[in-house]
Amino acid sequence: REWTIKLEQDIINLFQPTAYSRVDWNTRLKLPPMAKFLHAFYHTTENPIPLSVESLHKLMESRIVEMRQYRYGLKKALQLLVDHGFAKEAKVDPYTDMVIVKRNIRPPTDE
Questions:
Q1: What is the secondary structure of 14-68 as a DSSP string?
Q2: pLDDT by residue (tens digit) across 24-70?
Q3: Long-range contacts of residues 49-52, Cβ cutoff 8 Å, at least 24 apart
Q4: In what order do the strands lie in the sheet with 51-52?
Q5: Which end of the chain is more exposed for a tag (fewer CB within 10 A), N or C?
Q6: How far apart are CA 33 and CA 43, in angstroms?
Q7: pTM for the complete prediction?
Q8: Would you state the pLDDT for residue 26?
Q9: What number of CA atoms fall less than 13 Å from residue 107's CA on the CB side?
């Protein structure tokens, strides 16, 4: 038996390689909560724009009130993204307090 399925072009477009993000679950499962958020957040774009530490704090809805303590945890989480090969560079600029992430872009795999 043979089946034929017809899909509208709008549906087909959703499955194009540039239309969605595939999260690397092996990496994600090894990360603590703050690094998981950053991994998912930065996975959606190849060239992330710098964001202020304060903006990320709000986006993350972090319960850490003391910004010094939050910044310390953020730096550790960013370093984990580099250590796991997700990012070439991930840091907090000490002069501007902006978070800068440069992704390692890998070709899609058939996992």
A1: TTSTTSS----HHHHHTS-HHHHHHHHHHTT-SSPPPEEHHHHHHHHT-----HH
A2: 777 888 899 999 999 989 988 889 999 999 999 999 999 999 999 99
A3: 50/93, 50/96, 50/98, 50/99, 50/100, 51/98, 51/99, 52/97, 52/98, 52/99
A4: 51-52, 98-103, 87-92
A5: N
A6: 15
A7: 0.76
A8: 79
A9: 1
